[in-house]
Amino acid sequence: MDALIAPVRDLLGPAWLPVWTLVKIVALVVPLIIGVAYLTFWERKVIGWMQVRIGPNRVGPWGLLQPFADTAKLMFKEIVVPTGANRYLFFIAPMLAIGPAVAAWAVVPLTDTLVIADINAGLLYIIAMTSMGVYGIILAGWASNSKYAFLGALRSAAQIVSYELAMGFALVAVLMCANSLNLREIVAGQEGGAAHWYVWPLLPMFVVYIVSGIAETNRHPFDLAEGESEIVAGFHVEYSGVAFAVFFLAEYMSMILIAVLASVLFLGGWLSPFPQLNDLAIGGFAPLGDGLLWLGVKMAFVLLIFLWVRATFPRYRYDQVMRLGWKVFIPLTLVWIGFIGTMMQTRFAPMFH
Amino acid sequence: MLFSTAVFYVFAAILVFAALCVITVRNPVHAALWLVLSFFTAAAIWLLLGAEFLAITLVLVYVGAVMVLFLFVIMMLDVNFEDLRRDFRSYLPVGAAVGLLVLLEMVLVIVAGTAGAGSAGSLPAGSNTQALGRLLYVDYVYPFELAAVLLLVAIVAAIALTYRRRRGAKVQDPGAQVKVRREDRVRLLEMPAEKRDG
């Protein structure tokens, strides 16, 4: 690899760093978008199976080309701008929704070395970026000049701001255990097999994180911002065509981001649950060693929980959502942070590191 | 000119422009969004200084939480511009005086700073998240906790002053809702099947 890169690096000189970073960004974003496409397909299939249906199976072998058919359809739809809409904000809103969802990926480590920016305050950066995603939704609701969109935006803003707190506290518990805000070091702290993952000492925090993640991404059963039985389709009711597709993309990208973060913070990231098998070589290389494979398996598991929950639970009522966030999750996280802090002063401290 | 200096001037220009727009645009929602942009640009300038913790916290707290609530309120209010503009002339002298005072103070600070009276000092080596944590939670732990308690008192006071318990309002008790058992709600009746005549 280095032998291939070196001549290009010498050729480009000072322009090398931006070009190389751009290459890395493209190498991350393109698989991500394809991942989003197949996540939508998988979602429809899984929910189909859970409801004893077949799911999409017409386009391509086993329906595998369905997401591309959907994309093509959305691209050729007309974009309708409602009367009295604020044109600039109407078009900026989808970009503001997707921008943070992509930007947060900059610090996510996929393996020990595979990361675009290995910064010190990585976890903080991710919280900051995901907290910006709410602007897209609020502005979409306001700029649409529609009551339903506006109601959806208000609901969503209150919900995201509330669940951000619980999520932030759950992450505080992780960084107490890891002694670091750097995601790579957080994973390194979980070395030594499945028993050393933070999910065990922080089990309640893991649950809070996953549920808050579902609420943050406005997914079922917390999709009150959309709530089609009450407010049509919520904040994106006036959007059509590609503008709608961008909102869709942003939602699924945030879902994948929550999944990768849950894997990295609680489930040991790219580390294998059985380090004994790391050196087990089959045909020249070790397929079960640490690496992307394990991260992929863990992400798929977390994403499956997202889909599973969607197919299982009825939608929450708005006051129940608020109660769960403020009166259940935030006290629970605070108590657990105090508990971890206390335990770390006792002789059980190694269990929490 | 260094590359980082050029980047600084670009961000500074955006920051000044956004700040000007905050006070000149007519639509209050647009003004709030320009303020978001200026916070974001200020965070970028802090990043250039190497203060990554403060920069990210600025985005997290002000952009991610405070401004969202600001927008939330502004969008729901129906701001009447005629009312706001009417008393412009009578408030102008006071506003101008305060503005001049602030300007004077800023000039003094900058002059004193460049004269070397109050230098900013150098950043500690390594992660400044750790350095800040040490300062706040080890060196200045009591003042910091006092400030936190003060804020808590302010929150409690604000809620206590504005909270009003409405009489006759219907409230749900989630605990009671969860405790409901099948036996409380469902009554099974034995009904003998009727014989059909003829």
Name some characteristics of this structure.
heterodimer, A: 353 residues, mainly alpha, 63% helix, globular, B: 198 residues, Four Helix Bundle (Hemerythrin (Met), subunit A), 0% strand, elongated
Describe what is shown at a glance.
By secondary structure, chain A is an all-alpha fold. Chain A has 13 helices and no strands.
Write up this protein.
The complex is a heterodimer of chains A (353) and B (198). Chain A has 13 helices and no strands. By secondary structure, chain A is an all-alpha fold. In chain A, helix 2 (16-50) packs across helix 11, helix 3 (66-75) packs across helix 11 (241-266) and helix 4 (87-103) runs parallel beside helix 11 (241-266). Chain B folds into two domains: 1-81 and 92-116, NADH-ubiquinone/plastoquinone oxidoreductase chain 6, subunit NuoJ (Four Helix Bundle (Hemerythrin (Met), subunit A), Up-down Bundle), CATH 1.20.120.1200; 127-162. Chain B is built from nine helices and no strands. In chain B, helix 1 (3-24) runs antiparallel to helix 2 and helix 2 (28-49) packs antiparallel against helix 3 (52-76). In chain B, 11% of the residues are buried. The model of chain B has no long low-confidence stretch (mean pLDDT 84). The chains are: A mainly alpha (353), B mainly alpha (198). The A-B interface holds A 89, 119-121, 124-125, 127-129, 131-132, 134-135, 138-139, 142, 150, 153-154, 157-158, 160-161, 164, 181, 319-320, 323 and B 29, 33, 36, 52-53, 56-57, 59-60, 63-65, 68-69, 71-72, 75-76, 127, 129, 172, 174.
